[in-house]
Amino acid sequence: MDHAGISLQVKVESELKKEGLSKSDLTKEEFLKRLWDWKDIHAERIRSQYRKLNLLLPLEEENFTLSPESQSFVIEVFKKLYRDGLIYRDERLVNWDPILRTAISDAEVLYKQENSKLYYIKYFFEDSESEYISIATTRPETIFADVAIFVNPEDERYCSYIGRRVRIPLIGKAIPILTDPSIDKDFGTGAMKCTPAHDFADYELGKKHSLDIVKAYDVEGIMLSEPYAGLDKEEVKKRLVEDLGEIVKVADYVTNITYSDRSGAKVEPMLSKQWFLKSSQLAKRALEFWEKSELKVTNPSRLRRYLQDMEDWCISRQLEWGIKIPVFLKGDKHSLEPFSGSKQSEDVLDTWFSSSLWPQIVFKGGKMFPISTLISGKDILFFWVSRMLFMGIYLDNCFPFQNIYLHGLVLDSKNRKMSKSLNNGIDPIELSEEFGIDVVRLFFLSNTHPESNISFSKNKLEKHSKFLHKLRNASAFIKSQNPSSCSFKVGDLNLLELWILKEFLNLRDSLNSLYESFSFSFIAENIVNFIWDSFCNKYLELYKLMNGVESVNTEGFLGFMWNEILKMIWPLIPNFAEQSYLDLNGKALSNQSEEYLPELPEGVNVSWFLEYFNTYISIRKKLEIPWNSPIKVRIVIPNESWKLSNAELLPYLKIFNHELVELSLEASKGVVLIFAAGDIFVELFLEEEKVLRYQSYIQEVKKKLVSELEFLHRRLNAGDFKNMAPKELVNEVQEKIERYQKELDFYTSIYG
């Protein structure tokens, strides 16, 4: 469990504010007690959620990033890094939260588009009273820290100005006009002021051109330069327009403003003395190791880019809640051991620092290290995953895991990221109370694709709620059949039972590879389709009708099949699976193992009959054929070696009150001809009026087939679908195209 540094402290300070208090009203010990009390209350709430969500977690093995053992390990790693010269202290530009008064990470910065102002300010040349260059800025209060004006070297408007000097308004300080190809000629006037102390892009530009760094104001937002020294920068911003007079022009402008995700304050790029880790160096080692390892990642190119572009990491925070940095300071001197006049640093480590060591804290020294698989959100690939990788190489010369599966984010129905500011978050416990935990689990599993976001709305849970309802009905029916033994012999099964058993075994085999590739959505989709269509809509419906199709122990096979289905769906919807198994067998499902299933005889295939069953039910309604109306049929078969005999077919045809005339190798015209599956068709001999209605219906079917084929072809040929999509999905699309095309060709040849 993570101590959530800034987040938790902000929450506690917010609670204090409700009481009319602030952090400064408490002693350090009192404030720390508040922090720990909050942690204890909400840690228990999290454990409660784990239990309600039926997560199989060994809660007795829980660990915490601020436990004594965790802190001790983190501190030892810090000291090792410090001794190896990989941690240093420096004054650099960081994201500064002026309310919390701490550096924050990029992950804690939000960007909001807002209406703002663009200030056009004239900088007069040092050697001229009338000539000037105009620049555009959204932050006029920073002009006192300008160190240069930059233009693009290809901008012909300013070629003659390059190398000359201009004076900063109000203070008269002369600064040079320089060139850099990164300058956007189309922004503002095309001339840009450079203020390295208060802008990240300017900071990099300043380093590139070896420019000085000058501060306009301090971390409290108090101006340092005359004529406004001692005033708040926001007040100065208002006064500047009046004081600059005719040399300034103001225009409306829309821009992105950075805010702290934690406090809501506007984030300031600020020069501050902080502790840094040489992540760039560590990441390089990780990249080199990766070339020789078999690490599997959902998005290897993005991870590789992060490691290649890694910059040094600001690991210090100015907070109370966290692991104190174990360094003693006096001025610019620092040491791991106390020295004369020194004091221990008041800073704490960034939460991500301890999180980057989590695999070692929890698993090192045990049988599970390195870990086989890490499942993580794609949004923290940089902040967490990449850092765990290079820390693993540094500490153990190996990656802490072999596979990295990245899932997407849960977005709201408008595809916006969920946040407190938008008040669009969802509580999984509230959802579970409304829909049931099984429905919630099934929804998320059904919509989990590698790196793909989930667009959430309650309406989308209805589909899964209906599936659970269908399962409950199936469970009740199966229990009503009183399956006594829940066992069977393959030799005693009828054709329908052989078919559903074969379908089940094929599904179970395919699930193994899907689990190995973390294809959770396809696992859920295949299981739901099998249960809904094959088992419930076909097998169970025919089971209810097949009085004339007996097997030695029909009820035993039915009970067996249901038990195996419950074992299969248990990871997806454990509550239902457990209860249904208990109702049928009087014992817990979680203690049962998978049954051994013998080989099935080759060549048995009645899937055509099940396809026909579905189609016939639909057509019977369209043509208004009474259920008990006797109908003569002829079955068109692919060849004379077809497996089933008349005697085997008769019991099944009896279900529909069909009378088999013959098996034929050729189809007739002028009849109702129903496509079953493969090369098998069933001819129904009906009166002419119904044949004509059917022929009209077939034209509609053909239109739908053409439309579906066009869609499937577009999907198959879209982008990199064949290479990037799971093999199972590509095969499924190709099989549908082949099946639909064969059906279309057949109907076209018969009905035109």
From TrEMBL:
<dbReference type="GO" id="GO:0002161">
    <property type="term" value="F:aminoacyl-tRNA deacylase activity"/>
</dbReference>
<feature type="domain" description="Methionyl/Valyl/Leucyl/Isoleucyl-tRNA synthetase anticodon-binding">
    <location>
        <begin position="498"/>
        <end position="634"/>
    </location>
</feature>
<keyword id="KW-0030">Aminoacyl-tRNA synthetase</keyword>
<keyword id="KW-0436">Ligase</keyword>
<dbReference type="GO" id="GO:0005829">
    <property type="term" value="C:cytosol"/>
</dbReference>
<feature type="domain" description="Aminoacyl-tRNA synthetase class Ia">
    <location>
        <begin position="343"/>
        <end position="456"/>
    </location>
</feature>
<dbReference type="Pfam" id="PF00133">
    <property type="entry name" value="tRNA-synt_1"/>
</dbReference>
<dbReference type="InterPro" id="IPR009008">
    <property type="entry name" value="Val/Leu/Ile-tRNA-synth_edit"/>
</dbReference>
<dbReference type="Pfam" id="PF08264">
    <property type="entry name" value="Anticodon_1"/>
</dbReference>
<dbReference type="InterPro" id="IPR013155">
    <property type="entry name" value="M/V/L/I-tRNA-synth_anticd-bd"/>
</dbReference>
<keyword id="KW-0067">ATP-binding</keyword>
<dbReference type="InterPro" id="IPR002303">
    <property type="entry name" value="Valyl-tRNA_ligase"/>
</dbReference>
<keyword id="KW-0648">Protein biosynthesis</keyword>
<dbReference type="InterPro" id="IPR009080">
    <property type="entry name" value="tRNAsynth_Ia_anticodon-bd"/>
</dbReference>
<dbReference type="InterPro" id="IPR014729">
    <property type="entry name" value="Rossmann-like_a/b/a_fold"/>
</dbReference>
<feature type="domain" description="Aminoacyl-tRNA synthetase class Ia">
    <location>
        <begin position="1"/>
        <end position="333"/>
    </location>
</feature>
<dbReference type="InterPro" id="IPR002300">
    <property type="entry name" value="aa-tRNA-synth_Ia"/>
</dbReference>
<dbReference type="GO" id="GO:0006438">
    <property type="term" value="P:valyl-tRNA aminoacylation"/>
</dbReference>
<protein>
    <recommendedName>
        <fullName>Valine--tRNA ligase</fullName>
        <ecNumber>6.1.1.9</ecNumber>
    </recommendedName>
</protein>
<keyword id="KW-0547">Nucleotide-binding</keyword>
<dbReference type="GO" id="GO:0005524">
    <property type="term" value="F:ATP binding"/>
</dbReference>
<dbReference type="GO" id="GO:0004832">
    <property type="term" value="F:valine-tRNA ligase activity"/>
</dbReference>
